[in-house]
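Problem 3 from the worked examples.
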Amino acid sequence: MAQTAVKPREIPEKKRKKRDYNAISPLWNVLFNIIVGLFAFSCIFPFLFVIMISLTDEQTLALEGFSLWPSRFSTAAYSYIFRAGSDLLVSFGVTLSVTVIGTLLTLTLVTTYAYALSRRSFEFRGFFSFLAFFTMLFSGGMVPGYIVMTQFLHLQNTIWALILPLSLSAFSIIVMRTFFQTTVPDEVIESAKIDGAGEFRAFFSIVLPISLPGIATIGLFSALGYWNDWFNALLYYNKPELTPPLQYLLMRIEKNMDFLTQNAQYLGNFDAAAGLPTETVRMAMVVLATLPIVMAYPFFQRYFVQGLTVGSVKG
């Protein structure tokens, strides 16, 4: 009996394309890694450049200009700033306290307000949503806010004058409300209530743990706002014996340095004016004000993930 010839197995078109894609995927991975690496380096390079300028000798900077690797290093800028002594450490402590307390207060107010607006069962959510959105379009202004803080609340020259003006952000409320609506299904809350959990138990035990990415984002924005704030200290701190926050203290040091430089030039003492580390001090201030908050980013990075509720509702 004649045997039939066995035909070679044909590879389907989709599988052939998939194999071809897998064959070139390592090249694309290398290319994408290079692009992302260059982008990351372009973000880090300005900060590294500022650090190098802050460590440059002032006269070398005036003669040679800005360079990534100066011919002469100097720590005169940091020495000039640290002449403030204990005031700098106390100012750093004030800023850290304001940032921590203010961020916790902001997260408490924003999450509770936004969670109420995100629930369909809340009867007045439309009114309070409009109330939050209206403050984004029209604010009371600086003068009414100053009168409220000083005349009605009597919080002038207190740490609460640095915390309360930034504690409730309408933008953060809108963002967090949207996050709750898209991340926390109503079925999850209903199942928790069926199991006997109350509104607060469901909020603290279920809603908050699965909303960590949104909470971390709002917390990071809030911490940046408190850390970089100096304007409220300018408004509400008028006693010389009070140590201001770090940003306001650095600004005061810069103003004193500019005052000394102008007086030295006015009196004709150009050597003394040239000896003051004006440009390098500004760069050193940027480093001191930015480095602590930059070091906090890795702790928030792991929360910036999506899809934590995938699979939470089976169906």
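Problem 4, a separate protein:
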Amino acid sequence: MANNSIVQYTPEITEAFKPEVLQVIRQSIAPTATDQEFLLFAHKAASYGLDPFKNEIFFIKYGSTARIQFAAEAYLAKAREQEGFQPPDTQMVHENDEFKVAMNKETKELEVVLHEIGFPRGKIIGAYSIAYREGHRPVTVIMDIEEVDHMFTGQNKDNWKKWTSDMFGKHVQQRALKKQYGLDFGDETIGQGDQEGGVPEYKPERKDITPNQEVIDPPTTKPELSEEEKQIKKIRSEITKKLKVLGVVGKDKVAEYIANNAPNMSENPTLAEYTGLLNIIEMNIDMMEINDGSDELE
């Protein structure tokens, strides 16, 4: 559980969040943040009016590098607050669809002039999003599937392969909303030696809680496990599976992940500690699913 020794917050933070809410954010969403990192994270959330509990803004930390990242949902949330907001139209284009795009002679912009579907639709070959706004011309962003090829081989490739429509849709929609509503939060990376942000280098102590294993799965030879031990065995197995989704495989990588994300975990973790670790892993997986449409991956 994170300790909070911040004496004074910025006016924006105190206006946006009650002290007890800040404590929950610190403990559940940014448990590995230093005081200065958390202060910057909370200030960004407050200044932009974003809700960390709604997955609109994230704090991510790997080793000595911290990252404040804005989700695709943040752009949609802020667009809704703008005058003249109208819901965007985001669609996948499949290989068997009838799809045509033409240049508008007046605006000199590409527009979708035909999109008809039939079944079977075939594979996804592209996507487009039209961001509407009352009193403004629609903004259309069209992308070929080849433009996001790197997503299918990157760290979050499993989610892109499994939920291609959702991930691709968020990616292209965010681009359209940014252009239509002039939104650009700008992700911020706080790295080692970043003096401008005033954030000191953070070097967590590595704790190896898996000394004789490649993964977290416990030995299967122990007889007559207690009920709690059975629950721990089950949750450790679930942790191992979900760490693989994050690309964290092998004794050293698992130990490093735990040191960075659950630094207060004991050498002989309790069921509660394992449950807390699983919650952090699931949150990181959610971050990847939501944020793969962000500027960082464009």
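Solution to problem 4. Residues 191-222 have pLDDT under 50 and may be disordered. The two ends are 34 Å apart (CA to CA).
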